[in-house]
Amino acid sequence: MTTSVTLTVCFDAPFWVGVLEIAEAGEVRATRHVFGSEPTDAELYQFLLRHGTALLERAQANPAVPVETRHPVRHNPKRAVRLAAREAARVAQGRRSTASQEALRLELEQRKSSAAAESKRRKQDEAERKYALAQAKRKRRKRGH
C-alpha cells in the first residue's frame, strides 16, 4: 500500500494557500492552510517542521474521497501529447485535483456544522446567563434593597 503526500502552494486571490493531499489506497484526504503572503522555500520548510504533524493529523481527520480510476484508453499520439500538455499546465497553475477539491469541500462542511453548533451553544448559554441576571435583579427589587 503506497501513500503519497503532496503540498501544493498556489495563489487563491488574495492569499497564498497550501493544499495538503494524502493519497492512499484509491482515496484522497485533503486540508488547506492559508499563508497570506507568498512563502519562500525556507519559510515553507520551517512551517512544515513546526506545523507539519498537525497539518497531517488535520488531513487524516477529514473524510476520504475515492479517486476515480480510469482504464487506459488508447489515443492518437498527437492527442496524448495535447492531453499531457493540458495536465502539465493544470499542475503548473496549482489547480487541485477534483478528488482533493471534494475532500476540501467536505472538510469545509464539517467545520461549518461544528461552528454552527458551537455558536448555537454559546447563544443559549448567553441567553440563560441573561435570564439568571434578570431573575436576580427582579428578586433584589422585590426585596426593596
UniProtKB/TrEMBL annotation:
Annotated stretches, region: Disordered: 108-145
Any matching Pfam family: DUF2992
Record-linked InterPro entries: UCP021328
Highest rank taxon of the organism: Bacteria
Ranges of biased composition (kind: Basic residues): 136-145
Entry protein name: DUF2992 domain-containing protein
Source organism per UniProt: Streptomyces pluripotens
